[in-house]
Write a structure and sequence with these properties.
Blueprint (H helix, E strand, L loop, with lengths): L1 E7 L1 H5 L3 H10 L3 E8 L3 H7 L9 H8 L4 E8 L4 H9 L24 E2 L4 H13 L2
Length: 135
């Protein structure tokens, strides 16, 4: 048994894709443990994407992420590799580099790609603790 999390970005909520994404997660062996709406702020995005803060695209991306609500989803999986399994299901940050079986295939661009997930187990625990303390 292992766990991971996803943050459904504002574009996923605005486009009404939450039910479809949840269905994909469940169909691929993930059990939904928690769903929580979040209103992220600049500090939150700086914390979650700390390694990207110096990138030229960061500020516009940060503005997008704080523009409206996001949704935290915590998932459980019957294997010991939930983080990597979820990342594989989510796919490449560039929607054009995904197959229809990847969630990000439905994304509009490299920044508006519907969903975030931690890159590894250490990031998962950091993000989980941080986001559960929020509000």
């Amino acid at each position: 048994m292992s766990y991971s999390l996803a943050i459904l970005k504002p574009d996923a909520l605005q486009r009404g894709l939450i039910p479809k994404i949840i269905k994909i997660l469940k169909t691929n062996g993930f059990k939904i443990i928690l769903i929580k709406k979040l209103k992220l702020n600049e500090r939150d995005i700086g914390n979650l994407y700390a390694d990207c803060r110096s990138e030229i695209w960061f500020k516009p991306f940060q503005n997008f992420m704080i523009s409206s609500e996001s949704m935290l989803i915590i998932v459980e999986c019957n294997t010991d590799d939930a983080v990597s399994r979820l990342n594989k299901l989510i796919g490449n940050t560039d929607p054009t580099k995904n197959s229809p079986s990847n969630i990000r295939f439905m994304g509009e661009s490299i920044r508006r790609n519907l969903i975030h997930s931690p890159k590894d187990e250490e990031s998962f625990w950091h993000e989980l603790v941080y986001l559960l303390k929020k509000d």
